[in-house]
């Protein structure tokens, strides 16, 4: 019998004598009276505890002076005359508190979302065509003047973010003097399964019980996700879409005007936006000129005080910022207030100050590298440098230029041999004028044709900007011999402004092969102004190489006496890019020798070896 069995025996029976344990043996006296013991129940302090009564062991026969073997582990000896039986408690996990039951359908109430509109169409300056279309659609819903049998409803507002879709919906309700019930997806989202569809039903039920009102669903793309995504579509999304479509149809013929807004009409479920659910699709465009003037003036005067901007200035800014969203124009005053507080200007807001504030609001300047040369530091023909100087000045003074009847070119063509600084000149022009800089290549556009539209949209968003098209002959080659003529047409159409000319965006195309360009691309109104680049003259190259060598040496290297002469021999008729490559390779060779031999000197032999490696292995010593 092992120790566990012995302990069970001892707990099940009580004897008048003592159990004698001697080492590995246990002794029970012969005359011991053995009686079955009543098990004791031990109460635990835990709030929920199920206590199990120990089942008594079956009767046993104790032989006189029976010897029972036990394990050699030293037993714990107790001084108690009678050890009461303990009852082993079964481990029971404490039950967590019960979760509240999901709300029932009757508990969903959206009456608190109903309010009286604070605006009418008189608070929306300009945008007459948009307001007229909205009002006409609302009247069709409320009363069928033409006696149409089939009722119509559902006004879908779409367009770029920040143009006031919510404002127009509320102003429509105010114009009609109707209650305004506005919801977003967050109002109906729920952690409970099937609770979101029930909330959507409750929203439409609240609108129907209200009677004539405007029900506005903001960001409806959260409710009408496409259901054709296969396995990627969650079942709950399908339920939400199905419920929404059913409720929209049920709303037809009532006096509830359903208005929904989205920034992504192409991402909506196609069945959700068809006729019969949304009969009116109205684009909310960026503010027109009248609206822009009002937004600019109101924002500035609200933040800086009345009469802090001249109306002529506001009109000039508004004409330049065609396409900017209403939210961006409304934020202009806050940025000007911050600049005024920091002492960046005083007095009235001028055109240049407002342009600077808008650049700060945009928060980015494209992809212009940090180490960009100035126009005067680029080695190029003097006539071409003067063209760039004048152009940079005109770009900085564009407001005054236009007042005097002048204008900026729509596009420029930089042409000349490879490595003559065309890309550097474009970046220098952006730096000198303060324009943002965006760059692409003909090969990139051919690989991703849709990237052109994205590039133009980005340039319009961060303008004034320069769009630089490198290796343009790849994409603007003569269309009679091109397999990308369709893409060429799209680029030329953009320059023509067929969809509306974008102010303050200049397109620059660079090519090494002007003769390959399509004649239609270089005609007037497109890439009409041409700037020639060429290899530098000997005097210009000598000044550039001398300045570069002395800058690199800068106390680290000594220069061999005739090194400049050797450079001029190998770089005769070469471009600045070739000169940079030869000098860099010469320094690499000198640096290797300095580490190996501890001799820091740039030698003529380094220049010759570098020229053979970079330019032509047939170059000989001078």
TrEMBL record:
<dbReference type="InterPro" id="IPR003959">
    <property type="entry name" value="ATPase_AAA_core"/>
</dbReference>
<feature type="region of interest" description="Disordered">
    <location>
        <begin position="90"/>
        <end position="112"/>
    </location>
</feature>
<dbReference type="Pfam" id="PF00004">
    <property type="entry name" value="AAA"/>
</dbReference>
<dbReference type="GO" id="GO:0005524">
    <property type="term" value="F:ATP binding"/>
</dbReference>
<dbReference type="InterPro" id="IPR050168">
    <property type="entry name" value="AAA_ATPase_domain"/>
</dbReference>
<dbReference type="InterPro" id="IPR003593">
    <property type="entry name" value="AAA+_ATPase"/>
</dbReference>
<dbReference type="GO" id="GO:0016887">
    <property type="term" value="F:ATP hydrolysis activity"/>
</dbReference>
<feature type="domain" description="AAA+ ATPase">
    <location>
        <begin position="408"/>
        <end position="537"/>
    </location>
</feature>
<protein>
    <submittedName>
        <fullName>AAA family ATPase</fullName>
    </submittedName>
</protein>
<dbReference type="InterPro" id="IPR027417">
    <property type="entry name" value="P-loop_NTPase"/>
</dbReference>
<feature type="domain" description="AAA+ ATPase">
    <location>
        <begin position="151"/>
        <end position="288"/>
    </location>
</feature>
